[in-house]
Specification:
There is one protein chain. With 351 residues, the chain is mainly alpha-helical. It folds into 2 domains: 248 residues, Up-down Bundle (Cytochrome Bc1 Complex, Chain C); 76 residues, Helix Hairpins. The chain is 68% helix and 2% strand. Bound molecules: protoporphyrin IX containing FE.
């Protein structure tokens, strides 16, 4: 190292007094060998995709105009006039789909391996908050385009929130910012999408990762001498980096082959004949068609509460029968139900 570099390094170290040994120790923490498989460390994928979303989202916000009259045109201009705007928009769209898909896979991995059990119940609940926030980001994101699906999707969401017991009317009023869906709701969706949701997501990811580090990841049920470990840095870090490069390649291919399009501009006077939400809300949409709004909202609330508090339900089940794997059966039934409703709605053309 040259004398100049040494002095620059010394200057920086004296200005930012970091305990390098402690930092190295944190970085090289041994992690269980089974995390070499993607299925076991899949949580890193939505974490990386979240970074892609934040970086792309900031760039898109330079051009997006959150106004009822100009939102749609500004999105069209991003696609047609801004240099690489089509690429940014398409990557943002595809990364949102991949983030939700990998998040669901991560959640299933945690559920079916029982990794939510003590002492990780709280981290499961933080994970549930992350899922809700990510779905919220998806919903608010496609509402911002202000095309027909955005407008009518926002209208359905506001009407549905009015069916929530006790607080429904207030909730709908808060979402709409008035009696009808219009500029006030668009402003609120924008604030939620670019400000509140990303900030809360960042906070929840920080708590989530802190708790993962504090408890360590769940060990496999192996005899002690068969348990292998490898260091987080550089081994796991480099694997995640390779995965990040692959994901960027995949996102670029998706953006090139299926670029984000635009349908008709929002028209409050014309209800579209076929309105379908994004794939991750299809199950909820089908559920709504099977019963009254109020019953659908209440049953979905119960379903969500069961997921959030499942670690405690599981504890109760296992107290009655310590070897019980009833949770796996309940989980499989839940996944099958959601899949069936999704496929039903996706292939059903009757509005
Ligand atoms: C943006 C969302 C999320 C991110 C970035 C994230 C990230 C991670 C990471 C990096 C790990 C370490 C092990 C692994 O990669 O599997 C992990 C573990 C864990 N996650 Fe997530 N996660 C998210 C959402 C969720 C959700 C939706 C749930 C469940 C509702 C959840 C529950 C858990 C639990 C309980 C662990 C501990 C697992 C163990 O000890 O084996 N996470 N998460």
């Amino acid at each position: 190292m040259s004398a100049e570099n040494r002095s620059a390094g010394a200057w920086l170290r004296s200005r930012i007094p970091v305990d390098e040994q402690a930092l190295t120790a944190i970085g090289s923490e041994p992690i269980p060998g089974h995390l070499k498989r993607w299925w076991w460390c899949i949580g890193g994928t939505p974490a990386y995709l979240f970074l892609v979303q934040v970086a792309g989202g900031i760039l898109l916000t330079f051009y997006y105009v959150p106004s009822q009259e100009l939102a749609y045109e500004s999105v069209a201009a991003i696609g047609e006039q801004v240099r690489f705007g089509w690429y940014l928009r398409s990557v943002h769209k595809w990364a949102s789909h991949l983030m939700i898909a990998t998040l669901l896979l991560h959640m299933m991995r945690v559920f079916f391996t029982g990794a939510y059990r003590a002492p990780r119940e709280l981290n499961w609940m933080v994970g549930c908050a992350l899922l809700i926030l990510t779905l919220g980001a998806g919903f608010t994101g496609y509402s911002l385009v202000w095309e027909q699906l955005s407008y009518w999707g926002a209208t359905v969401a506001a009407n549905l929130s009015a069916a929530v017991p006790f607080v429904g009317e207030r909730l709908a009023e808060f979402l709409r910012g008035g009696p009808t869906v219009g500029q006030n709701m668009l402003t609120r969706l924008f604030v939620l999408h670019v400000g509140a949701i990303p900030t809360l997501t960042m906070g929840c990811i920080a708590i989530h990762i802190y708790l993962v580090r504090a408890h360590g990841v769940t060990e496999l049920d192996l005899p002690k001498k068969e348990r292998k470990t490898f260091p987080f840095f550089p081994d796991h870090f480099l694997t995640e980096l390779a995965l990040a490069l692959f994901l960027m390649f995949l996102l670029t291919c998706l953006a090139l082959i299926f670029p984000a399009g635009l349908s008709e501009k929002a028209n409050p006077l014309e209800t579209p004949e076929h309105i379908k939400p994004e794939w991750y809300f299809l199950w909820a949409f089908r559920w709504l068609k099977l019963m009254t709004e109020r019953t659908a909202i209440v049953t979905q609330g119960i379903f969500l509460a069961a997921i959030v508090f499942w670690p405690f339900v599981d504890k109760w089940l296992r107290r009655r029968n310590p070897r019980s794997e009833a949770s796996v059966a309940f989980g499989a039934a839940g996944v099958a139900l959601l899949l069936a409703l999704t496929v039903w709605e996706a292939f059903d053309s009757i509005p």
